Task: structure prediction
Amino acid sequence: MIENTFTDMPTVARKYSRSKKLFLICSLGIPGLYYLAPILCSEKWRSINLIPKLTRLPLLFLAGERDEVIPSYHMRQLWSAAEKASNKGSSGPHSSSCADLVEWQSWPYGMHNDTCIQRGYFEKIEEFVKERVYSTPRRRGRTLGDSSEKEKK
Result:
């Protein structure tokens, strides 16, 4: 499950370098900080490059449309990358399961720290886990928390 996250840190640093309040506090008036911020950002955390590698995992994207910390387009880009990779992977040996592993759910009034209290949030997670995680051929017919003798060894 991926919730209200970013594509990469340099893009987030650039967003915050545009903030006038933050600019005055942190930049000490450094001209061109907007262009320097991504370079000065030592941690890159490029989620956008990692998402396409997750083609065999069920992914649920949970987004608050009014996220004030990370712009919602970051989540849309991550979801789009996962969809593209999932569809590309659907021609391979796992084609029956790859195409429908990526799901999107957003809440129009969800913000960065309150998406989890939006109506239907936990129900969506429960539905996803039941349909995408526990309905795999390996788990089919078992209930949550149930394990076979084979898995215990």
About this structure: Residues 2-6+47-140 form one domain. Confidence is low (pLDDT under 50) at residues 90-97. The helical segments are 9-17, 20-26, 33-40, 47-50, 72-89, 95-98, 121-133, 149-152.
